[in-house]
């Protein structure tokens, strides 16, 4: 299994197969608009701007499971991301990332790259780095700022 076996709805409601990202390095992030880590959108957008031409894609998945920190509609989330952070990378519809209703993609990601104490995602802005074959190569904690994973992204792009 790889991420290419999954699909998800974009913020605009379009079903998108992750197979579209085959051959790219992908950073998958569960996001929230009202979290202490929300300013990471700025760093994620900078990574995207700096590396998209070399083959990086960033996929944002809003989630409201952690302290109700993303209560808005998909349209409100889209407006917020564009207005406040100029987000141009692909954002998807709000999903669950843990528990029985977790999106199958996140069930796969947490199985492939379990966390330190639990395999489940513990908070917003957990990041998964995917290689060009669609395999999880690293998991980063919410506290890990996007700029601190540049080396890992560059290694994956140059692999």
From TrEMBL:
Give this protein's Gene Ontology molecular function annotations: peroxidase activity
Q: Which GO terms describe its biological process?
A: cellular response to oxidative stress
Keyword check for Nucleotide-binding: no
| PROSITE patterns from the UniProt entry | GLUTATHIONE_PEROXID_1, GLUTATHIONE_PEROXID_2, GLUTATHIONE_PEROXID_3, THIOREDOXIN_2
**Active-site residues?**
35
Domain Thioredoxin intervals: 1-159
Q: Show the InterPro entries listed in the entry.
A: Glutathione_peroxidase, GPX_AS, GPX_CS, Thioredoxin-like_sf, Thioredoxin_domain
Give the family from UniProt. Answer: Belongs to the glutathione peroxidase family.
Protein name per its UniProtKB record: Glutathione peroxidase
Which species is the source of this protein? Answer: Virgibacillus phasianinus
